[in-house]
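To illustrate this point, we now present one chain and its tokenised fold:
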Amino acid sequence: MPRIRKSTEPEAKTKRQKIWKVGKYIRLSREDGNVISESVVNQDKILQDEIPNFFEDGFYEVIDTYIDDGTSGTTDIERGAFQRMVCDVKSGRINCIIVKNLSRAFRNSANQGHFLEEFIPLYSTRFISLYQPRIDTFLDPEIVHSLEVSITGFMNEQYAYKTSADIRRTFRHKRENGEFIGAFAPYGYRKDPENRNALLIDEEAAQVVRDIFKLFCEGMSKNGIAKRLNELGIPSPIAYKRAKGFHFECPQAAKSDGLWCPASVARILKNSAYIGTMTQGKQKVVSYKVHQRKSVPEDEWYVVENIIPPIVSRDIFDMAQSLHCRDTRTPPGGTELYLFSGFIRCADCKKSMSRKTSKNLTYYVCRTFREKSKSQCGNHSIREDILESAVLTAIKKQIELVSGLEDIIEEINSAPVVNTESSRLNDLLKDRKRELEKATGLLDSLYLDWKSGDISHEQYLRMKPKLTDQVGQLKTAISHIENERAKLANGVDTQDPYLTAFLKYRNVQTLSRGLLAELVKTIYVHENKEIEIEFNFQDQYQRILEFVKSNESNNRFNSAEQVS
């Protein structure tokens, strides 16, 4: 029988004393506000005072302090200091974590359970929480499985949920009222010192915004504008905010070199804040636990007009948006856009026409014919100087027509009775409603015809989409006609946008991209070199013609009275 040899060494000498390498974890969230007891300084003082009570033998060393300031406890991933602490545990740099209470370490019961029940035991680490429920996983490893710890985790999570819901509700209310809730004002504005939810114009940056819109509408490309601003030494929006002392951070900030680029110019040109419109809520976080942001559909944005002081006029803003939508190219090495870039198309294939130079003359030619297939389209081409002259002449003719309409409208509005009804629109509306009633009836009876055996299932499936599409088109047409009638019912005056847009160019002698953007939608070139211009304001033009036509009898009556 084997004998067991007992050691004669004293027990104290056989046990190796464990040295605790302590990491203090501190977290302060924005939701804590100015609560003094939760401040970073206060938490650190409490931890420092209490640490010796857990290590009476003195075998410990405070290795590091991990601070997440202004960070939610609902997720571990976004807490930089917490993640650094986890890495130090894995590497063996620390083997003891101490916190003030569980809510400082966790606001997510699932994360709490994983950390205390799996991570801490896996890496033989000691976890200490000072306040109720008091936890020391070295002295009482089973405490982490207690009902009290689980309930505390659940209550901490519910607190985070309620706080998040309250904040979202407050933000929604502010957005609906047009109150600015962003951390930094848009470039060109500054926060009102007396009301942090209101914006005032920052005149220094606002002048740069005005110059950007002006240069773009005059024909300079976004790339050309960026180069010009850089040559003048004007700092980019990110550099400007930092120069003003703001700790500005955004996804583009890390890569910013302080210079303007076409993308930053484009963001300014598309920002409706510059005409006084507050647009917020374009993105939202997934939930109070998942802090990733996702885009929100445009119809769910919070848009409040005329709530902040505008920097540019609506006319110049709309002109810039029109130019944005066009296919634009600049000359190689140049900064000015070609005059007709984005405006000129082939009348047959409807594709943009390309610009080429031959024998010191510049032409626009059909891209389909020139680059793809001569059998797919004809040889549409026109000289640029001829095109420019023809377009200028057509615009002058249109302005003369508008000027004549202005005189007629003034005469109509001076009559004792002004007719705002259109017999054509009324008749058209009756016809479309009659057609809709018929199509709806056919659609309703189609199912019964199939079930009764009058038509086959294949016929039913073939006819249903056609009738459904017809009903949809008729409803759209009726809505459009009713809108036209409603607009006509308000009458027409000489301040109509269609009239004012053309009449302000009454003495035009040369073309510019700004003028084209405001007046012209598309220029079509036919194979016989004839051009067809589709002007903007077509709906307004038709409405004015309806108004004039419906008042022709009044006009003739007034003229007869004047003759007699």
